[in-house]
Design brief:
By secondary structure, the protein is an alpha/beta fold. The protein is built from 14 helices and 13 strands. The protein has helices at 19-23, 27-30, 74-82, 109-121, 138-145, 174-185, 206-215, 231-239, 258-271, 281-288, 309-318, 324-334, 354-364, 391-412, and strands at 33-36, 39-42, 45-46, 69-70, 94-96, 127-132, 151-157, 190-195, 221-224, 277-278, 340-343, 346-349, 367-370. Strands 1-2-5-6-7-8-9-10 form an eight-stranded mixed β-sheet, with helices on both faces. A three-stranded mixed β-sheet has the order 11-12-13. Strand 6 (127-132), helix 5 and strand 7 form a beta-alpha-beta unit. The chain is globular. The chain starts with 18 loop residues before the first helix and ends with a helix. Bound molecules: iron/sulfur cluster (SF4). Iron/sulfur cluster (SF4) binds next to helix 10 and helix 11.
Length: 413
Amino acid sequence: MTTPPLRHPAPQTLPYLDDDAKAALDPYMAQIVGYRKSGLSLNHIIGCPLDCGYCVRHFWGNFDVKIPHLLCSTDQAIDRLTTHEAFRAHVTPIQLFNKATDPFLPGVKPHLFQILHALDARGYTNHVLVITRFHVTEQDMAALEQLNYLRVTLLFTYSGITDDRIEPIAKTDTTIKSIRLAAAHSRRTGVVLYWRPIVPGWNDQPATMAAVLELGRVVDAIVFTGLYHQPENADYLRTLGVDVPYGHDYHRRKTMPRDLDAHVVAAWRQSGISTPLFRKTSCGVAYAHQTPDYNGHWGVRELCDICPATQRQRCADDYREPTTADMDAVLTQLGYQTHYQIEPGHVWTHGLGEQRRYAIQHTLRHQIWELDQPHYLHAHGRSLNGHTADPDQVATLAGVREQFEQAARYEDD
Ligand code: SF4
């Protein structure tokens, strides 16, 4: 007989956002279910008091909302998630509250567990990613461990930054304690140290990096990444007197220059810890559950040089280049249209938008790329700040674009 899961208290009353405030929201903030690279993301609670200076909510005018607010009820949110066009039981990776709040804030946590219990009760085995930097308790871990089906990963954002103008939570050891506690009580729950943002001058000093890596000894995996360098959060930090690197060279992707990537990898090697280091979130999550990467990064082999041999084998065994029949089938199934070109390791598409592209990517576990926002060699998923575009690749891109344009002209005739 299965032990019934520990229940957290019924969701407490968080305020609902009123209609006027809802109508004034940036469309991105108003979107309750959206597809992102790491999974189908549910965000019906927005607002956060933690005040991280680099917060992405600066981009959508939500940073000043410190009290979490509901956009709809949690039952409605669950329904929207599971009836989303791209949701597939057991397949679609899910992210909960990863856009505009922290899922372990006291008012948010009961809603987090309501969702987890509802999905688990349906027998779904999907990956579920939960990103936090807040208090995680023994009771939380016991409840997570009693889930039967979902493959939950806790990703603890921890940067080692000590400047509390950048991260007010840095004054406390909240995240450090949570990481240790989660790691000590996890059996089926993945625990990842999400080492981000790594930023020159803020937390790239050898002693700071060594301390983060030391903490990483206890977790399943460490995933590192850089800063979303955008004018809104950079200006905010500059008004606080913080030195912000990269000047006014802003990008839609995170910034992790080549030399900083090399510095991080060297620090990890030098630390001697056995915890694997990953450049991609999905790789760390996949490793924590001994599954192949659901984003098909094995097709971008340069990312895999730091990955453990057992995991490389898992991804290699799982890798299969899609055929045109596969692509046509998934496009039909999801109701999407695009020209596409299959190349080794990835498929070029055009005009799908990120959300549709990721739905295809997770269905096929293969890289699906957009012609207008290309990935470049050695800068996969990162801004070109600190990298140079490979001339051969630029020429290839021009060729693919020409083929797509020809196909479009042919259709118009
Ligand atoms: S082998 Fe490559 S794709 Fe697979 S988990 Fe490791 S880094 Fe990611």
